[in-house]
Amino acid sequence: MADVLNAKAQVANAELDIIKAKSNIEQTKLLLKHAMYIPLTTQIELTVHIPACESLRADVTYITNLAYKNRQEIKKMETLVLAQKSAIEVARSQGKPNVYFNFDYVPASSTIFTPSNSITATVGTTIPIFDRNLTKYKVEEAEANYEKSEVSLENVKTLIELQVQQAYIELIKAEEEMVKVEETLKASEKNYKVASLRYKEGIAPFLEVTDSRALLTRAEASRVQAQYNYFIAVARIIRSAGLLPENGNLYNIKLIDNSDGKE
């Protein structure tokens, strides 16, 4: 009787887990699309067979340089720095002499029979003398803005470097979790087989079988979760580099410098 009640309780708990799993599927789909730069409204289909978690070679320095080259935040700040640098030259030019030249050609005629043309050329210069140091202040302001933009650029680079470092740490963590989960799964499978044999031989109660099966189910679920975490970690480190995988294949992107010909 106790075994029956215990089995019913396990079934009820399993049904609750199914409800939670359905909700988690939809939420994790959103997170996956966000991590892979896929529009949240895009419909995606989950494959029945989860692909193998291939080891991803990654070099933090190389990824950071990729991020500096590809991230839009860097490009925007570099454009701002160039604009502020140009503003300094514009401000300085306001204190320099301005030379202008004007040339006019005027066709005219004094009479019908004696036509005449006139050419007028004008050369002049303007020198700002009484600007009350206005040009100086404008130059100082432009230089201050330029220095501020350079500081902002360095801050953005530091933030991006931090994001790359964090993504790399998460990737290493996910890889280590995959190893431990596989070890746990193998142990749970062996434990379930032993419990089943003991039950068939009549030396173990059915409760031992259900308990070992529950442990195996949790180990299988942990492996799926670990695989999900690993793929998310891979997607995040690719995203931190400012890259976008083609056709959703995360392993088409190289995160290590192979320019020396070594793999």
Number of domains: 2
- Spans of 5+ residues with little confidence (pLDDT < 50)? none
Share of residues in helices: 55-70%
Major sheet summary line: 2 strands, antiparallel
Query: For the record, what is the CATH homologous superfamily label of the largest domain?
Result: Outer membrane efflux proteins (OEP)
How many H/I helices? 5
Please tell me how large the radius of gyration is.
36 Å
Q: By helix and strand content, what is the structural category?
A: mainly alpha
* Strand line-up across the major sheet: 1-2
Tell me, what is the CATH class of the largest domain? Mainly Alpha
Order of helices and strands: HHHEEHH
Shape: elongated
Averaged pLDDT: 82
What distance lies between the first and last C-alpha atoms, to the nearest angstrom? 62 Å
The CATH architecture classification of the largest domain is: Up-down Bundle
CATH level-3 fold name of the largest domain = Outer membrane efflux proteins (OEP)
Strand elements, count? 2
Determine the strand fraction and express it as a percent band.
Answer: 5-15%
Explain what you see.
- Helix 1 (2-35) runs parallel beside helix 5 (206-240) and helix 3 (72-93) runs antiparallel to helix 4 (134-200).
- This protein has five helices and two strands, in the order H-H-H-E-E-H-H.
- Strands 1-2 form a two-stranded antiparallel ribbon.
- It has two domains: 2-84 and 135-252, Outer membrane efflux proteins (OEP) (Up-down Bundle), CATH 1.20.1600; 95-132, no CATH class.
- It has 263 residues and is mainly alpha-helical.
- The two termini are 62 Å apart.
